[in-house]
Design a protein that fits this description.
alpha/beta, 3 domains
Length: 344
């Protein structure tokens, strides 16, 4: 293989047309058939005009940016017809001037906003109070975010199409995986590939395709379902212990919880479990934190408030470098919430 021409499969097989994209199963908060959502965007794609504003949200690697790039490539015929909005308030001022100008060559102008939740509050307010609704007859706003819950609810309503890119549609992911293997001339067993997709689908398209490539380096797709979760063996113990410790804290009085928050050694029972978790996290460099977060979030004994903390931090997992410290920070936030609720 020529290293100068090598390109990772995820980049090489990034969707470039509307037909190659795997559409989500949730539109405007309601479950929908992905084919129904695809039909809507196929119409926009073919007419080169989006009838409204689009917000794509959800974890990284699910297809949010790919959708935007596909629509941009089809609609924009001149570089002056697209505006990439930065995060500074003055960028919004520049946008206001750009909005007044007519399209140079395209049927429609586009404003692209990556990570819209990171815009300043002032910038979000300016968008909400004018541009997002005023120019829909000639301009569409395409925004993405991993943290839609951080946006002003009023701002969310300015987006006509809110697409939740979370767990991939199985049929779409399986079809895409088959296409890639066949394009790369990789031998594969279809039933084994179905198991692979089923076990990797929650990780997102980027990771699914990356793992597909790793399992195909010999020219044949080789996959062992027993090893698919990529677990070290310590994850389930950590999950069970965290769930137990949260329940233990909930049954203590406020003063005791406060003491533990300040110093875990103030409670020998709590500390023996907590210290062992710290030891595992320090020693086991291959812990699957994605698996840990998901299983804590899905645990029925975890209350909504605590679960929300884990959900928020889980959405940041792909971008943090020190996942072990990130997880311990999440647990600390959950402990602090338990303490604060003792006053209620």
């Amino acid at each position: 293989m020529n290293q100068n021409t090598y390109k990772a499969w995820f980049e090489k097989h990034r969707p470039r047309t509307i037909n190659e994209l795997i559409f989500p199963t949730v539109l405007n908060g309601e479950g929908k058939d992905p084919q129904y959502i695809k039909t809507i965007f196929e119409k926009f794609y073919n007419q080169e005009f989006i009838q409204g504003n689009v917000l794509s949200y959800g974890p990284a690697g699910r297809g949010k940016t790919s959708l935007n790039k596909i629509m941009q490539a089809k609609i924009i015929k001149h570089p002056n017809d697209i505006f990439i909005l930065g995060r500074k308030t003055e960028d919004v001022d520049k946008l206001n001037a750009w909005l007044q100008a007519r399209s140079v060559k395209s049927n429609q102008k586009l404003v692209v906003i990556e990570e819209i939740d990171r815009l300043s509050q002032q910038a979000q307010t300016i968008l909400k109070d004018g541009p997002l609704e005023k120019y829909q007859d000639k301009i569409s706003f395409l925004a993405t975010t991993n943290n839609a819950q951080k946006l002003d609810p009023a701002l969310l309503t300015r987006f006509n199409y809110r697409l939740f890119f979370d767990e991939l549609d199985f049929n779409g992911a399986f079809g895409r995986s088959k296409y890639i293997l066949e394009t790369e001339n990789i031998k594969y067993d279809e039933e084994l590939l179905k198991q692979f997709v089923q076990l990797n689908i929650k990780r997102g398209l980027r990771e699914l395709i990356s793992n597909l490539e790793i399992n195909s380096v010999t020219g044949e797709f080789i996959f062992d379902p027993k090893k698919a979760l990529n677990l070290t063996g310590n994850e389930d113990y950590i999950i069970q212990t965290i769930v137990y410790l949260l329940a233990y804290l909930n049954n203590l009085d406020k003063e005791k919880v406060n003491d533990i928050n300040k110093n875990s050694k103030s409670d020998s029972h709590f500390n023996q479990y907590y210290e062992y978790i710290l030891k595992l996290i320090k020693q086991d460099l291959l812990l699957n934190y994605d698996y840990i977060y998901k299983n804590i979030i899905e645990n029925d004994s975890i209350d909504f408030g605590t679960k929300s903390i884990f959900v928020d931090d889980y959405q940041q997992l792909d971008i943090v470098k020190m996942k072990n410290f990130h997880f311990l920070s999440t647990f600390s936030k959950a402990m602090d919430l338990i303490y604060k609720r003792k006053d209620l």
